[in-house]
Amino acid sequence: MNIYFACSITGGRQFETVYQSITQTLLESGHEVPTAHLAEADVIDLENIVNARDIYTRDVNWIQACDALIAEVSTPSHGVGYEVAYALGIGKPVLCCFQAGQKVSKMITGNSHKNLQVVSYADVNQAVNFVQEFLYTLKRSL
Known about the structure:
Rossmann fold; alpha/beta
């Protein structure tokens, strides 16, 4: 499957190891992840060389082409919120996961959209398990 992975870039990188574990698991499972580079430590340098309009166009095209969007939402991010809403608006299944105890926008946690699943994880292994379960369920429904 083609999976759009979303995570905070400019809002903070304290969950970078979780981002990396999720994208690594997706790639090792044979999924296409055009945004896998977002999990890398040098992502800010990579994204700084592309102008804002090009990033917007690129990312919207990737969301339109994806089978599902998976977002790590422990760190607040305008961009991730936009991507989640955009994906839901065009009918994509979305998984939002966040570390237990983190304050997450009620626009995410309070959203009852039928294509949205929101989960809280205790550790990176549980986050990866939630991602795998989400994709397994999604694959069975296709």
